[in-house]
Specification:
The structure is a single chain. The protein folds into 3 domains: about 130 residues, no CATH class; about 120 residues, NAD(P)-binding Rossmann-like Domain (Rossmann fold), CATH 3.40.50.720; about 190 residues, no CATH class. The two termini are about 50 Å apart. The strands form 4 sheets. A 6-stranded mixed β-sheet has the order 3-4-2-1-5-6, with helices on both faces. Strands 7-8 form a two-stranded antiparallel ribbon. With about 500 residues, the chain is α/β, with parallel strands linked by helices. The protein contains 17 helices and 12 strands.
């Protein structure tokens, strides 16, 4: 971020004497002349046409071209001709549509990631093969897979990835050049040189690099210091109106406590004439709230603080994902489950399944199914709360140790998923007694129940499994669960399921 330059510092030193003689025009003129003479403060060069949304939109168009061209090149490399039939043309067109949707879900069009080539490559390695795989699944469903050349698909996969990563490498260099030239740097003027303005500037300096804070303005010029958080106070709101005629300003942020209603309204009336975005900074409490945007009720703007997770169409997608995948998985693992059930019956007396009461969605109590891994007289809820399993726990049967170590004891929970009580991916459910214990110790613990509990979760694939013998372990698990809830997407679920297949079945902490 650019720091305040010498011209601003020199201007403030002689500001008050100049105010009396020449008025506001003199203050602004001196600042501009000193800036021009020393050339230390970069001129704002950001054009109206160049914006992050335009760059990401252009990237979408370029991706479509790359997908089409790579598909045609792959076809030519395989068949030495571009005489492509109608079916292949439809395949290319559908490929473009699927690409845009999958890439959007994978976050490949998030502007903040465009300068991180490693992050782009990592996401492409997952998203682009998923696009090709989706096309093959569509071809299989339509009974047309035999008409598709495997070599063409393989070459399309290779050429497409090469082209897509090359576009992002070139785009990264161009974006960095635009940043260096100041064309993507936001020039911000702040109104309000009090504590509220200081907090906002300090927060901005820590969170955002590509912002040029021009300075502050405040009508209470005689009662405020010359500098706030290292930036000069350049004059009043009227001075800002003159200043904006000579110096390009992209955004004006009004940082004033909302209790000062009359001053706020007066300032906003004056700022309506500026060709810049006018933003109203939230009150002091806003610095401690999550970023959820703004909504309207009866035409009144409301700051969104917390939102219901996985709602609307997301809930439909999540429900379909759970029911369809769980049904298919149960069919696939039925022989394995029968084998485990028989082994339990042969090795220890008692039922095959162990049912334990746990908290589910919205803190409702559900019965979670598991293969019994303990001696029956030691794992009954009726005898009191069941303590967490520990290493070398004598309640666990020899077969149970294998089941718990490999997570095979969790397989019956797919029945809970089909019944709608659990999800495949979500925060792991804990026993009622453990829930009540940790709810008193961890403030955000019960927020885990804003969604259905899951068989696997973001915490589990990151190694947070098994015994939670310290409060810190449970706090870390809760933080991972909350991150999953706040950032849910179908792509995130797929990622967790794939990670579970690789690392989730066996873990040293599972005993």
């Amino acid at each position: 971020m650019r720091q305040p330059m010498a011209p601003g510092l020199a201007m403030v030193a002689g500001q008050r004497s100049l105010r009396a003689a020449d008025g506001r025009q003199g203050i602004v003129q001196l600042y501009l002349e000193r800036t021009k003479d020393t050339e230390q403060r970069p001129k704002p060069q950001r054009g109206d046409w160049l914006a992050p949304s335009l760059i990401t939109g252009s990237l979408r168009l370029v991706d479509v071209v790359v997908v089409l061209v790579s598909g045609l090149l792959a076809y030519y490399a395989r068949f030495a001709t571009l005489g492509i039939d109608t079916f292949k043309i439809y395949s290319l067109a559908i490929g473009c549509i699927v690409t845009l949707n999958v890439f959007h879900l994978a976050g490949l069009y998030q502007f903040q990631h465009l300068t991180n080539l490693f992050e782009q490559a990592r996401r492409l390695l997952v998203a682009w093969p998923l696009v090709i795989g989706s096309l093959l699944m569509l071809g299989f469903a339509a009974g047309l897979l035999d008409d598709i050349s495997r070599a063409w698909v393989a070459l399309w996969l290779l050429f497409g990835f090469t082209g897509l990563i090359a576009v992002r490498a070139v785009g990264r260099l161009q974006i960095l050049r635009w940043y260096q030239a100041g064309r993507l740097t936001l020039n911000i003027a702040v109104i309000g040189a009090g504590e509220h303005g200081r907090r906002f500037i300090e927060h901005l300096r820590m969170q955002e690099r590509h912002v040029n804070i021009i300075g502050l303005f405040d009508d209470r010029r005689d009662r405020i210091p010359d500098f706030i958080a290292g930036f000069p106070v350049l004059g009043t709101v009227d001075d800002l109106l003159l200043f904006a005629r000579r110096y390009r300003i992209d955004q004006v942020v009004v940082a004033l406590p909302w209790g000062a209603e009359e001053r706020l309204l007066n300032w906003l009336k004056k700022l309506k004439t500026l060709p810049a975005d006018i933003r109203l900074c939230p009150d002091v409490i806003g610095f401690h709230l999550p970023h959820r945007g703004v909504s309207h009720i009866a035409g009144v703007p409301m700051l969104n603080v917390f939102e219901k997770p996985i709602a609307g169409w997301d809930s439909v997608v999540k429900a379909l994902e759970d029911r369809i995948l769980a049904s298919l998985i149960l069919l696939a693992i039925a022989p394995l489950m029968l084998t485990v059930a028989l082994a339990i019956k042969l090795t220890s007396p008692g039922p095959v399944f162990f049912k334990q009461k746990r908290y589910g969605f919205n803190n409702e109590i559900i019965e979670v199914f598991k293969f019994r891994s303990m001696h029956v007289e030691r794992c009954s809820d009726e005898a009191g709360p069941v303590a967490q399993a520990t290493k070398d726990d004598d309640r666990i049967t020899p077969l149970g140790r294998i089941l718990r170590r490999t997570s095979l004891d969790e397989l019956p929970q797919f029945i809970n998923v089909v019944r709608g009580e659990m999800s495949i991916v979500g925060p792991r459910p804990h026993a009622v007694a453990h829930n009540e214990q940790y709810a008193k110790l961890i403030d955000e613990y019960l927020a885990r129940h804003k969604v259905k509990p899951g068989i696997t979760g973001w915490a589990q694939v990151n190694g947070l499994r098994g015994e939670t013998d310290t409060l810190d372990k449970m706090e870390r698990r809760v933080q991972f669960d909350l991150h999953y809830i706040e950032n849910w997407s179908l792509a995130f679920d797929i990622r967790i399921i794939l990670m579970t297949l690789l690392v989730g079945f066996s873990h040293p902490n599972a005993y």
